[in-house]
Design a protein that fits this description.
alpha+beta; 20 helices; globular
């Protein structure tokens, strides 16, 4: 499926009863950009609704979050193999063309949230509901001959090939035999995993049925039109206000437009003592999840900074990255998404301009190709997303192993678009004039292209206050289409209204995006197979060749054959263009690092997943953890240049008296990632000083105006840092700016020496740290006479001086004195350097002030010792090697583009303070 995975559970500590959730330390608070639309899972069709209700409804199978393997759960064993869930159909199935699988179920202690015992009837009913659902039915079509279409044995009394072969007298155990009418590779992972709906509720008058215990397909006398048989339509219209499921969380409350809340279901069977998997069964440590509604990124980020929420459930705009990274209590985690943003077309015959005529001929293909040449995807990625995205040529990312690199690419070529329209016979309202605004193209038969007023082509787009990253491309594309004579307009609509138009197939074109957790075998079938014309196939794409390709990909066990078929499917989609994929965004998620630990990336490219939910624990409960930061990394580089990058990893142990002991983390495993350019090593272990070293090579940056002015922003990420016995370090992001060759810029390397000081010693003397700033130019030569200013956030520790000039070696040194504290606190030290004729340079580092623990601070770290190499600053600056890292500890890098109008030192001071106090996203 495409919606977030509903994979179930696994944690170790039970924390009170389900109702005892007042303790804020165990309540996870999440920000959502939009509200629930419904509590009925049959109706739910948007990401915000599923963010909440996915944890309420369980599935019979469970996937181990680390290995991806299916493990014992409600469905605890397959009779086809000695392996729990798996077999080779060619060897073990009686009829490879129609393979059979016998599955064992155990319902002991498996109860719904209202205390009702689950049994095999609930599983069978859930299959019935899935088969009737226009989206869910794709998961069970392998059980219906010929996909329930013509020339099959799909009848009113025999339409799901599932047979109950045994049930115990107490109804606690049962077996089902499944006979696949078409081989399906993901049968165990997907077909065996319907969302479990309680029959005692959904099969009765409670759910608007005509009678209690309504019949389903295997009951004698079942007929879809009979009053005593289950009605999908009536269930679909039910509001389901009680929301009873059997999942790891139970519904608590919903205040529309404000918030909703779910509670951990402590009576869930999968916990310590579960007989089929006693070593791994566990429940979440958190007691509740609260979902708060924030309509804009600005208000949600402010609430995050104010500690009103713990995490944002959507990617933050790139403009907020620096502000969030500047807050020592916040973290950002980035990951490449499988999901994508796209422009969709309505290809159905009633919108014949964009697709099929009444005979099924695709007459709209030239128009779609022409529009493709009106989309400046590079501008969208570089300007709007600040390069935190990969441009798309199709629905599979170019960094995926599934990607077909030979598919057609449509460049931004407005003149080429005009040629396509002319060659295809499109007409102009004024044939004697050039196409453009007012001189619009018409269809070859002279009819208007769009279905809006006066033939306007309407592009449905979210409003800017909801999603500026989708709103602005809609405006750009409409303007570019108008420039070549296509009468287009971007129509801003709220998210729910766009969804309604799309589901009712009432649109010309629309902007949207998908969150995807599955591989292309599943989501390409879901989005584009003609079986799903009334489901997720919103464009109405119908291509028999594509259907055959996808049917083959879903059936084969041969990985090489599957890969080739998926590449063939991409070629069909790239040529036919039912979607024009704009980009695959880099998901940048923000969360509070001082509240919970245990966030991990999931299969959909988000830290909001079951792996995180099951492992989240309050920071206060953690005694051993790692910290990691980039050191010796310049703030800016030149096109194609190579620089050293080092990661310093520190182990931190909290003593019984609350004091912290920091030592180098030797042998910690570090994994790195970059959004552009390459690293010589992407992973490895730390050395005796707790350092992992690699080299970064910047990409080619062309000398175009926007890059000369602002540079090319790149993210370098510490993706993960792990060591046995310690909580993993939160990932770190560094913004680095790459400039075209011959652009003159300043770059800063800085360190706090030491980076950990105490508020006072036994004699009452306050701690002191030196902030050493080294400013070099684009050729790595020291820059003398550069003005450097410093700021500490949050304010408090005094700095001397607050501005100054670099010496002949490009060095400026500041002194920071600690303040008396009641608790440990981490500060961000930010510096800015500028000089006439150069682009400004910015950099940040971290400084920790610890509350009176001088006697317990372990100073055995060799990187805290005096480094004799540091006595020669000329050598340190000129060789460009890693000598700086030999005296550097925990440094966090922030690079951005800052423009200050400075004419004197006094103006510098006021302007820099104004910038810090009033910076806007």
């Amino acid at each position: 499926m495409v919606l977030p995975s509903l994979a179930m559970m696994t944690s170790s500590q039970e924390v009170g009863e389900a109702g005892e959730v007042d303790d804020l330390a165990y309540t996870l608070r999440l920000a959502m950009q939009d509200d629930l639309k419904t509590l009925n899972p049959l109706v739910a069709a948007d990401i915000w609704t599923w963010h909440v209700i996915q944890w309420i409804y369980d599935k019979p199978v469970y996937e181990d979050m680390e290995t991806g393997e299916l493990v014992p759960y409600i469905a605890y064993k397959s009779g086809n193999s000695s392996v729990l869930f798996g077999y080779d159909p060619a060897e073990n199935w009686a009829d490879p063309a129609k393979p059979e699988a016998t599955i064992y179920y155990d319902f002991e202690n498996v109860k719904f949230h209202d205390g009702h015992q689950m049994d095999i009837r609930d599983i069978l009913f859930s299959y019935h509901a899935a088969a009737r659902h226009r989206v869910w039915r794709g998961d069970v079509e392998c059980l219906v001959d010929n996909g329930s279409f013509t020339n099959g044995n799909y009848t009113d009394d025999n339409w799901l090939h599932i047979e109950k072969t045994w049930e115990s007298e107490d109804h606690m155990q049962a077996t089902l035999k499944f006979t696949l009418q078409n081989p399906y590779y993901n049968f165990f992972r997907i077909t065996l995993a319907p969302r479990i709906l309680p029959y005692h509720i959904w099969g009765n008058t409670t759910a608007k049925q005509n009678i209690d215990n309504a019949k389903i397909w295997l009951d004698v006398g079942y007929a879809p039109s009979s009053l005593d048989s289950w009605s999908f339509e009536k269930a679909y219209a039910w509001d389901n206000t009680e929301s009873i499921g059997s999942g790891p969380f139970m519904f608590d409350s919903w205040h529309p437009g404000i918030s909703s809340k779910i509670l951990t279901y402590r009576d869930h069977f999968y916990k310590e003592g579960f007989k089929h998997d006693p070593d791994n069964a566990r429940q979440p440590m958190i007691n509740a999840i609260v979902f708060k509604i924030y309509k804009t990124a600005e208000t949600s980020v402010l609430s995050l900074k104010n500690n009103d929420i713990d995490m944002l459930l959507w990617t933050i705009p790139p403009t907020f990255v620096q502000e969030i990274m500047n807050d020592p209590d916040l973290e950002v985690k980035q990951s490449a998404e499988k999901g994508f943003s796209y422009l969709g077309y309505n290809m159905r015959s009633d919108r014949r301009s964009f697709g099929y005529d009444e005979n099924g001929v695709d007459i709209g293909k030239p128009l779609r190709h022409a529009i493709a040449h009106c989309i400046d995807k590079m501008a969208i990625s570089s300007r709007l997303l600040q390069n935190f995205a990969i441009t798309g040529d199709g629905p599979v990312s170019s960094i995926s192993t599934w990607y077909n690199d030979s598919i057609p690419h449509y460049s931004f070529d407005p003149e080429g678009a005009i040629v396509i329209l002319r060659d295809a016979g499109y007409l102009l309202t004024d044939p004697g004039a050039e196409p453009g605004v007012g001189n619009w193209w018409l269809n070859p038969d002279g009819s208007h292209i769009g279905n809006g007023d006066y033939g306007k082509i309407e592009i449905l787009t979210p409003p800017a206050d909801y999603d500026p990253i989708q709103a602005q491309p809609g405006l750009m594309i409409a303007k570019q289409m108008q420039d070549i004579g296509l009468n287009a307009e971007s129509i801003a609509m709220d998210y729910g209204t766009i969804k309604n138009h799309v589901h009712q197939r009432d649109f010309d074109m629309y902007m949207h995006d998908w969150t995807i957790a599955s591989d292309p075998t599943e989501f390409l079938y879901d989005f584009f197979h003609s079986n799903n014309l009334d489901g997720h196939n919103h464009p109405g794409y119908s291509n028999a060749s594509f259907d055959a390709i996808m049917d083959g990909a879903r059936a084969t066990w041969d990985e090489d054959e599957k890969l080739q078929l998926i590449k063939d499917a991409q070629a069909s989609l790239a040529y036919d263009l039912p979607y024009d994929v704009l980009n695959f965004r880099t998901n940048i998620e923000a969360y509070r690092a001082d509240r919970f630990d245990g966030w991990v990336n999931g299969p959909a490219g988000s830290i909001y997943n079951w792996g995180s939910i099951i492992d989240l624990r309050p920071i206060s409960s953690i005694t051993h953890w790692l910290s990691a930061t980039l050191v010796n990394t310049p703030s800016a580089v030149s096109s194609n240049s190579t620089v050293d990058v080092s990661v310093k990893v520190t182990s931190i142990v909290k003593q019984e008296d609350g004091t912290l002991v920091r030592t180098p983390a030797i042998g910690a495993f570090v994994e790195m990632a970059v959004t552009d350019g390459t690293l010589s090593e992407y992973n490895g272990t730390t050395d005796a000083g707790g350092i992992f070293r690699t080299r970064y090579t910047a990409p080619f940056v062309p000398s175009i105006t926007e890059f000369v002015k602002d540079g090319h922003n790149i993210l370098i990420e510490i993706k993960s840092v792990e060591m046995d016995g310690y909580e993993p370090a939160p990932n770190e992001l560094t913004l680095l700016t790459a400039y075209p060759e011959k652009v003159r810029f300043l770059t800063i390397r800085m360190e706090a020496e030491p980076d950990v000081i105490t508020d006072n010693d036994t004699a009452g003397n306050l701690g002191l740290a030196s902030i050493i700033v080294i400013v070099t130019d684009q050729d790595n030569f020291p820059v003398a006479g550069a003005t450097v200013a410093i700021q500490i956030d949050p304010q408090g520790p005094p700095v001397t001086p607050i501005t100054g000039l670099t010496d002949e070696s490009g060095i400026m040194i500041f002194q920071v004195k600690s303040v008396d504290l009641q608790e440990d606190r981490e500060y961000t030290v930010s510096t800015i350097a500028f000089k006439n004729g150069y682009k400004n340079g910015t950099q940040s580092s971290q400084l920790m002030i610890i509350d009176n623990i001088a006697s317990t601070l372990d100073v055995s770290d060799p990187d805290l010792d005096e480094d004799p190499e540091f006595e020669d600053p000329d050598e340190l600056v000129n060789d460009g090697e890693s000598s700086l890292s030999q005296s550097s500890t925990a440094m966090k890098f922030i690079s951005g583009i800052i423009v200050l109008a400075i004419v004197s030192i006094l103006i510098l001071l006021s302007a820099f303070k104004f910038y810090q106090d009033n910076r806007r996203p």
